[in-house]
Amino acid sequence: MNAKFQPSAKRMETATSIGSAMKISLATHGGQAAAINMRLPPRIVNVDGLPKDTADELVRLVEAAKAAPAAKPVPGFAADAMSYTITVEDDHEPVVLHQSDTTMSPAFAALLSGLQKHFSPQ
């Protein structure tokens, strides 16, 4: 694992309690709902506006997903698979993570699940 992507307590504190304006957006592409999804804008989470525990968890999930490579695609597998683009913007260079149902790392899946729970009606 690359040390540059290791989460740290200081990084999490900065992103959630000192006011770093971290924004995470999720765009979905393809799959059986492709015609519906292409008309929808990306969903956005402003992390600094979330409760501290929730924000800390999202920051931890982002750091883990950045460090985990996608799996190699399997040719001809899941022609109707969804692909996901997660863009993380903060005080640093934006990071774009792009994976699909067929190449998703466990860390990316955890981040996607965390974001989808946030978007679900409460």
Folded structure, characterized:
The structure is a single chain. With 122 residues, the protein is of the alpha+beta class. The chain has one domain (9-70, 81-119). The protein is 35% helix and 21% strand. Strands 2-1-3-4 form a four-stranded antiparallel sheet. Helix 1 packs across helix 3 and helix 3 packs antiparallel against helix 4 (106-119). It is globular and about 40 Å long.
Labels describing this entry:
4 helices; 122 residues; 35% helix; globular; alpha+beta
Shape: globular
Main sheet summary: 4 strands, antiparallel
Give the percentage of residues in beta strands: 15-25%
> What structural category characterises the helix and strand content?
alpha+beta
Q: Report, as a whole number of angstroms, the end-to-end distance.
A: 35 Å
Low-confidence region ranges? 1-19
What topology, given as strand order, has the largest sheet? 2-1-3-4
Order of helices and strands: HEHEHEEH
Count structural domains. 1
- In angstroms, what is the radius of gyration? 15 Å
Tally the beta strands: 4
Instruction: Give the helix tally.
Output: 4
Average pLDDT number: 75
Helix content: 25-40%
In short:
Helix content is 35%, strand content 21%. It is an alpha+beta fold and 122 residues long.
Topology:
Layout: H1 9-17, E1 23-30, H2 34-37, E2 43-46, H3 52-67, E3 82-89, E4 95-100, H4 106-119
Helix pairs in contact: 1-3, 3-4
